Amino acid sequence: MLYDINLRIEYDYDFPVSGGRHMVRVLPRSIAGRQRLIAGSVGIRPQPVERTGVIDFFENQATLILFRNAHDRLEIDMQARVQVDATNDQPDFSPQIGELSREIAACWSLAPASPHHFTGHSPRLPDCSEISDYALSVAAPGMTVREIASALCTRIHSDFTYDVDATTVDTTPQEAFRLKRGVCQDFVHVMIVALRSLGIPAGYVSGFLRTIPPAGKERLEGADAMHAWVRLWCGPTNGWVELDPTNDMPAGTDHIVVGYGRDYADVAPVIGIVKSYGQQQTKQAVDVVPVRQPA
Amino acid sequence: MTSKAAEAERIAGNPLLEGLMTYAPLPGIADEMVSPDGSIRPAWQKLLSALGRMDETELANRFARADRYLRDAGVFYRAYGKDAGGERAWPLSHIPVVIDQAEWENLSRGLIQRVELLEMIAADIYGPARLVSEGLLPAQLIGTNPEYLRPVVGVAPAGGHFLHFCSFEVGRGPDGNWWVLSDRTEAPSGAGFALENRVATARAFSDVYAETHVHRLAGFFGAFRDALLAGRQFEDDRIAVLSPGPANETYFEHAYIARYLGFMLLEGEDLTVVNGRVMVRTVAGLKHVSVLWRRLDASFADPLELNHQSQLGTPGIVEALRAGSVRIVNALGSGILETRALLAFTPTISRHLTGEDLQLPSIATWWCGQQAERDHVAANIENMVIGPAYSTRPFFDDNGRSVLGSTLRENAKLPIADWLSNDGARLVGQEAVTLSTTPAYVDGRLVPRPMSLRVFAARTRDGWQIMPGGFARISSGSDVSAITMQEGGSAADVWIVSDRPVDRTSLLPADEAFTRNLPGSLPSRAADNLFWLGRYIERAEGALRILRAWHGRFAEYADPDQPLLKDVSDYLKQLDVDTAEPVPSTLLASIDSAVFSASNIRDRFSPDGWLALADLAKTARRFHDSIQPGDDATRAMTVLLRKLAGFAGLVHENMYRFTGWRFLSVGRYLERGLHMTRLLRHLSGEDAPDGALDMLLEIGDSVMTHRRRYNVATARLTVTDLLALDPLNPRSVLYQLNEIKTEIEQLPNAYSNGQMSPFYREAMRLHAGLAVMTPEGMTPEAYRHFETELEKLSDILGETYLS
């Protein structure tokens, strides 16, 4: 599939902020055999006095910007054309939980895709006994890691209600778990904590969803803003597998990856440090349109 | 009497000697003073024979000398926990730990080998990670380690090194050999305290110290300072100690080290990053900083790329690191080397990387994330301490998170082996060691107390150097676990004794060319604190003077509704000062605010100045609870005014006349001008009650001058002339404006491109406006005008220099 993606993020500040430094992660990445960024640009208004592009630890593209002058509005516009290739569904070669820990330990690597970065806790995701009990109730003896993950994905999708007003960007997984409500970020955080509590390495994927579904299919939840889903490590043979608990489906050609991280904090679209007194309003608009290709 | 009997009598009369005679090391535990065969170690003999000649009184006097020094120097640490926030007197154990030079050299060689190995490990973890891919270091130990800072992976440190200043916690085992208990690589503290312990102990034993060949510490610090100076990119780059601020446990030391080495003391908000370079905000604009000695935990250094919750850091620091423009001592991320579980792997890594065994063993450690190690720990649980694998502190200093294996059997819910296999990756077992004892003076005698030693290593231009001395922590009981200060432990100086005279370098090299360095630019935050210190001090003085005059009259009239008293009470009420309280809370608040401002810039004060201010605050607080209105209050105000003048005098006599001084002065003049303007408006009007003019003169300390100058009874115009317009009266409004103008001329950027700065222009205008006034013209409206203008001046100063 070939997509044209437009993202617009707007911040309105009640009082002008005197300056600010931000890290922006909105540009789709290229992933060998999966997706390719053909062209992409990030426009920022007002014009920042400094602007630097960096590749972060997990190999996401980030833009660092600095403002020195007062402004009461910040606009970020991202445009990209991305080629997404259909991945062949692999058969399930994942081990059972007991075997997985040995396979993790046998992985002598700190490369960005090493499972070792995705076990234990991460800045936004501490241990949570309620969620680990929930995970244990899903994992039955004899199930493979892949099977457990799919079961969890389905379970969360049916137990949780998609509700944009129930949570905020700072809601903890425990709070979301108790509410059984939230948006993609909450679904994903709960599922990551659940997987990790079982010893399965799991991380956060930020990205985009195709806005208008193909004919005859339902529109997916989360398509009108940046989306998030889960990736988990299923052993050396299957490697990383991506599941979308908000829509209870594997991430496929409708999912375009922007960033990989341990949790939201690693891939937040905009991290900003501003000195301000008042509140701010944020708006996000996304358009992911398939490009008609000559036959 | 036989000589033996005489000796016995001498001993009997001297509890210390008795203590020496009965000093017995604990069985099976090494002692610093007494060797295993029961003889006194040679290095201790001079000190001991000197101690033997002192009686209890002399000893008490000597210890008091040391304690007085520490108090006067303002040495404190901050207690956490139940009495959080309190500053505690420094708990010095007066008897130093004495170590023979030859033994020390051995230890030093081992530590240098160790710190060089740690540097290689850091470079590998944040570089190619070969130790992981070759199986020498479990990936899990790094990947799940909170000290592993991903944003700096692959960023080579400016200057090429991760480590520049480290410390080691070492202890002596029962066999007499030294062990490394933990490595401190993040932001090691204690070096400044070691210096202060040294000065204090040398005060107590000045004679012994002089005749014993004790190695000096200054050379070590000098060599490190030179190395940092050499690390600058350009000669006028700044070097700073980066502190988390006055709330930190060891803030005293940050200020002390900065002052001792002549570096700036900064906090995260003093810094900003411009085009990849770290800059400090000063009153003269942004200035480059190319070396930061960091006392702030790494993850807090940059809220943008590291811990997003940090309020202490500087956004953009990681960007500056990528640009290679700043050397951070030690590099961000170095803290991972402190991980306790790493101790299990360093011996193998040493052989692998250098082909050498560690000369100095670490405390035996097993990481329970591996089957064989886990089994070993389970089988030997009685002789183990079990603790968190990722802890960065030694087992006896981690707030009780480590437990003796022997106590586990009784309390454990699960069988030990199950527990270890469930949670193994988060646990380490360490051999339960006993530490050597050293004599501490307790209740008139010397008793053996467990100790651990903190030893410091600095990278100098000639390679690593070990500080010849250190910081001994001494337990308050016979148990190692009571070694931390939070648990009542104390600290002792460490004497490394040579059998030959030692080099007595002081920090100032005599043979280098003499240059006179002007102090570096003043950070805006420091200027802000100095300015407000000046204002609060003067605000307190103004209130004190009015209150003294008020209570003097109240003692006479005994009626608060007497017209003058009532009038002045009403005036004070506008300033939130309530005359019903003899020592009003608002006054205490001004003094506390002054103390707070001063505490933020402690490195710029002499300890004397700080003590005088602390004394003022303490006295005011005491008076607040005890003073009666009238005469009693008048006397109390006089005492407080005298103490305040004492502080002002110390500052006036001792503070270097540079930018910082000017901000302090401008603060004082501005507040005094405001105080006098308001007071004149209120008390010199046509309708002011009887006696108001005399009271004004008294408050303005100008009674005698008025008598001499005017030769008439007090009249509205003469008082106005003297207190508002006389350029020679140090209490007049015009005098304040004159001084403000003079100070501003000397501030940075008073002129830019040949033009006066707005601040300077405003001060000139205001001065000229008042200078041309006549006493007749000083109407209430005129006073109000000048009051508003003075307040505006304060705002412009803030905008120009302090933000």
Automatic annotation (TrEMBL), chain A:
Q: Does the keyword Hydrolase apply?
A: yes
Q: Which Pfam families match?
A: Bact_transglu_N (PF08379), Transglut_core (PF01841)
Listed Gene3D superfamilies: 3.10.620.30
- Record lineage: Bacteria, Pseudomonadati, Pseudomonadota, Alphaproteobacteria, Hyphomicrobiales
Write down the species: Mycoplana azooxidifex
One GO MF term attached to the UniProt entry: peptidase activity
Q: Which BP terms from GO are recorded?
A: proteolysis
InterPro entries (alphabetical): Bac_transglu_N, Papain-like_cys_pep_sf, Transglutaminase-like
Transmembrane segments annotated in the record for this chain: none
Indicate the segments forming the Transglutaminase-like domain, all copies: 176-247
Entry keywords, A to Z: Hydrolase, Protease
> Protein name, please?
Transglutaminase-like putative cysteine protease
In the UniProt record, does the keyword Phosphoprotein occur? no
UniProtKB/TrEMBL annotation, chain B:
Ranges of residues in domain Circularly permuted ATP-grasp type: 96-474
Every DUF403 domain range:
522-802
Report the domain of life of the source organism.
Bacteria
Task: Supply the Pfam families for this chain.
Answer: Alpha-E (PF04168), CP_ATPgrasp_2 (PF14403)
* Gene3D superfamilies xrefs: 3.40.50.11290
Name assigned to this protein: Putative circularly permuted ATP-grasp superfamily protein/putative alpha-E superfamily protein
